[in-house]
Amino acid sequence: MKLLSNSAIVTGGAQGIGLAVASRLMREGTSVLVFGRTETKVADAAERLNREAEGRARAVPFAGDVCRAEDVARAHAFATEQLGLPGILVNNAGSLSLTLLVDLPEEELDRVLAVNLKGPFLMLKTFARALIAEKRAGAVVNITSVCQEVVTEGFAHYSASKAALAQLSRSAALELGRHGIRVNVVAPGATLTPVAAAFIDEPSVRRELLARTPLGRAHGMPEDVARAVTFLCSEESSWVTGESLFVDGGSHLRGLHSYWDTLNPPR
Prior knowledge:
This protein is of the alpha/beta class. 46% of the residues lie in helices and 14% in strands. It contains nine helices and seven strands. A seven-stranded parallel β-sheet has the order 3-2-1-4-5-6-7, sandwiched between helices. Residues 6-189 form the Ketoreductase domain.
């Protein structure tokens, strides 16, 4: 599969879906800036990716905060210096918690909105400006969630942030299409990542997920999401922009069950 660019930035790239995406892009010959919050984690991830790539592409680590404009600018400059002007951006960094609306602290709302919406906005703005200045095409994939469309108790703040990101993506696709920059969304369902493992492995949750997923698996794997992202970063999707691709085994068709009630049964 021929990707749109030889240089990419993947946020939240040190583990889970982000790591799988970086690995998949590198397998296709695209070098990746692995952007994450923790220096040791991004360094370890880059080392692992370079070992697996066996010279087909490079991974370089960058530690910073996607919610800080100065960190975003430094990350983009570093990627350009090390790998060439990035033509692929995958906004994967995210924040999730399970809290009922009436108990939700304002600080938690601010944190989730900052990571899930402000961060992708800052990354997208910086990425697009650089490509427009050089008259270069590009591809952006924003990772949302089935929660952009379906809701359940305890996820009001998370669902709102992901729905907002989906709409930001559609607006960006409209504005940036004239510059040859495509913007799409991949919306995963329950995916077995280090962050989600404890939740998904809870027997009661696992039973509910299995019962509600038409394709007969309780959860997806990071590689399932990575394959969809890679398609949207390739020339195979050159006529696709402003779309949301659900990677969830069809679970959004039945809607989400109440994770809150499952994890907090009446006494």
